[in-house]
Design goal:
4 copies of one chain form a homotetramer. Chain A contains 2 helices and 21 strands. With 303 residues, chain A is mainly β. Chain A has a 9-stranded mixed beta sheet with strand order 1-4-17-6-15-18-19-21-20. In chain A, strands 3-5-16-11-14-13 form a 6-stranded mixed beta sheet, with no helix packed on it. In chain A, β20 and β21 (288-295) form a beta hairpin. The two termini of chain A are 28 Å apart. Chains A and B meet through α1, α2 and β20 of A and α1, α2 and β20 of B.
Chain lengths: 303, 303, 303, 303
């Protein structure tokens, strides 16, 4: 079944809030998200800033200990106006170089969804004109965290949240551990494009039309968000410093390869050892994110 | 001029040692390297283990404050026997998962240079047969460090060293800051292939035939190793934790874009913000390595 | 006014929950806390484990942007049974040493409040008998966090929480930033004693009789918990890695010295430079804690 | 035997250099050190800056695998002029606060050795007059590192070096692992006083009269510097981030308690768990330092 849902309010924390819609295992939800400052498709601010989330959606049958599958069917900007930070964040450069960073207002972008490009509006630096390809993604989405917590959409954890990973594009399937009955899915914080690390503190922030299909894996328990696209499988670790993100994501991948791909600890180690890839999600938010990724073509048809 | 150099001894530290050969700006050197344990193309141990280095090569005209350009013309395994670690290193997984890591002997690989593949010999895990493409690279190479230091080939720094980045393949050009007269170039620690992060502590370790061409950029001063291939430019930051690697590499890239690509601080920030990529060199050695990378196609013909 | 409050339920997250008692600026609250596993003074489990908190207490007049002063009048164990972890946590030793750590059940302690000692019950290691002085403290306490968050009592932040700092003993005054009307004070997780860093994951965990006096500093805004005793002033930074804790705590101290002690940035730097002390709160919880401390005797009567 | 040694040259790296003096097990050496910028007791610069070291001293009988004992008999400033950095270092504050740090020249101090005080000369901030007690210490000292390395006196490692720990005062005994025949002891970088962390990048830098007595523990192998004074034993871990310093120092202490104090792994864990203290050596140098410390009074006469 396909649900068309129009949000009337938003959350800037991810927690055990009252569901806005209840759906069944296998259903599809088509909805919209505002941008990180609460502006909608008409470029009007309709809710306070801070990665406002649409949802939560209650998925029937999802219970703590299960896994929620979220298929990102379509993530599509629904306006042409995008904006981004302009200066690299102080924590991303050498401490002694911070005083050299520019002070600058936000950058405005013109996003052409059909052409799949974004272009700087009114260039004000020596960079001048810049047009780049877009790869629309969700920066912040996930499920209610464990222990009845309600956690700011500025950060992330085992439940997802503000992972700011540029791989969360249309066509990707994401797996979340379920901590609350119904899982309670939130979606928001769309980026038309984003560099690795989100080093200026934002992607090209934009409101979105979002379509996702949800499924429940009963009795399947995972530790961290996982993902899959046609080429790769991946795991996401959120923490500080980046080293700990790598630890979380690698541990989760080692477990996944053993439970679902027929490997033992030694085989999983050997495969990752020479074939693993890591992506930097973000190095800006309170929790950073690193992704441990494996190309399906090295997996010899396993799984 | 092309020099064919056959090493007679090796170094397990990178320092201001007596040059084994003096070459001119623009010369090419063809030589060999042993593997990380000191085994040569006949699979005989001819020097103690520890990433033994061939060199140093004295480049006429290189003085402190200059930049040494090292073009990796050809990095080619000169035997079929490769070996690798088998278990993910304890520092790469959650501390609480360390006790689950397998204890296992080294893995042996059959490397077919013509087919460009490596295959596990005598598979002993549930992984079974595994054949992967090779991308021969140098794990450890660089120039004499500042301040007359002699630093173990286990680690890395502004002078290069054991960066263990899988991007150092044939066709890549590398730039090092010069700290000693003649720069004193060392090369060694070849890997037929390596996963991101070198998380089992090794790539597929192998002896190599190495051909490099060196040039000197007089009066050009850089802070960290830089590199370039047909698609990208990149900078390398070496430190712990990974966050600090990102700081070093990003700061170096911001400087490079301003001095050589006609950008101001703001333009460099805006370009990196939405377009930067990061690669994880290694998360195993005493100093980790992260690479800040930018595709040339987004640079609009600058530089 | 003195309030005697007997808790009937507990919280394992710190958030904007319904107050259990409303008090005035200047009032004193005498209450009890259960231990980290929910056991009370009779050694009976009355609530689920996880640093259960007594409260929250609503302090009239406290508004976002104010500071809540919490004077720890008396923190006193109300039973003789204490328990602790027995093995150093895996993240506190070298990753390669984790496999050497002992697996062991909890250690039981006999706590003699009058003698101010704790003694291991039924010693089972070569350590044999051990009696140590107690310094009863609160491991986890604080106020409702910003942005309507409800955050697990396993971790800590600007609002306090599970800081696990051995300096929070009777006679210490603590300052918290206020984020919710009434501040919403929580107290719990008593330790009869604790080593620096809480490296076995616990102190000597015990239920407590707790007496605190609260005051409101109207219009006084601070960034992180601060504290004071007869000898020192201190600030607390909570994060990972420890480096970032030091950054938070030092920044907060620099600000404090400038706003309240008549120093400029240069004077504050010079004073801290040669006189500052740092204490390790904990290196075990999701957020670690470091304390930046300055002895009053070097402050020459300022403030 | 007592050797009176007057240095004629200095080293700014610690490595396998030619010894300046050979001494026997049990001998005492009285010598002098210049300050971090190479200025001597007359306040004349006699060697380039960079923590110049006096030595190395060859200790007969010391072989790799042994331990060198260095008793700090007397560390005494030999002039009245001291200097220090004035601003907290950028890496010690929040990245977003770096732009608030003052730019300031070095601070000059008048050091009165008899009164055991240091006083700011010509106060130029709102701090005004400041007189603090001195605790003269060595910032940088150690033995030749492993693998024939020569490592800058800016940093530190298993061999000691620039640990910048304020506990290295007269009356302390220090233990170093021996990596080279004769151990090759270096001493330098005296501080009249220093705050924890060396957060302005220096202590009160000064030239010193230094007297040490050396002994060799044959066949005793240790992993990191250890120390002892009348009240405590301690271990030093050098690395980044601070978390890794804690790992090194705690692992070394767990080993020490088991080999020399009759404890098993469980007993050592339990003792440290409730009794350990940590000191922050430095959070400024390329390698930070943390100290794991245990008071002798909790050790019940063991060892």
């Amino acid at each position: 079944m396909i649900h068309h849902f129009t949000p009337t309010h938003y959350h800037t924390a991810i927690g055990p809030y009252a569901p806005v819609l209840t759906v069944d295992d296998g259903d599809t939800i088509t909805t919209t998200t505002v941008d990180a400052r609460g502006f909608d498709h008409r470029r009007e601010q309709i809710t306070p800033r801070g990665n406002p989330q649409t949802g939560p959606f209650f998925v029937r049958g999802a219970e703590p200990g299960d896994t929620l599958v979220v298929q990102l069917d379509d993530i599509r900007p629904n306006r042409t106006y995008g904006w981004s930070g302009s200066s690299v964040a102080p924590n991303v450069v050498d401490p002694g170089y911070v005083k050299e960073l520019p002070e600058a207002p936000l950058t405005e972008w013109y996003v052409d969804v059909d052409a799949r490009t974004a272009q700087i509006v009114a260039p004000a630096s020596k960079l001048g004109e810049l047009t780049i390809p877009i790869e629309p993604m969700l920066g912040c989405f996930g499920v209610a965290p464990p222990r009845k917590q309600a956690i700011s959409t500025a950060t992330s954890g085992e439940y997802g949240g503000n992972m700011d990973y540029r791989g969360f594009v249309s066509g990707t399937t994401v797996y979340f551990p379920v901590f609350e009955p119904g899982a309670l899915l939130f979606v928001g914080d769309g980026h038309a494009a984003q560099g690795c690390g989100e080093i200026v503190g934002t992607g090209i922030e934009i409101s979105m039309d979002v379509t996702v299909t949800v499924r429940v894996l009963k009795g399947k328990t995972i530790g961290w968000p996982r993902g899959e696209n046609k080429d790769c499988i991946f795991t996401v670790g959120c923490a500080r410093p980046l080293d700990q993100c790598v630890q979380h994501a690698t541990t989760e991948m080692l477990k996944w390869l053993q439970t679902d791909y027929g490997l033992d600890a030694l085989g999983a180690s050997m495969l990752l050892g020479q074939c693993v890839r890591y992506d930097l999600g973000n190095i800006f938010d309170p929790a950073f994110a690193m992704v441990c990724r494996l190309e399906k073509k090295v997996m010899g048809g396993r799984g």
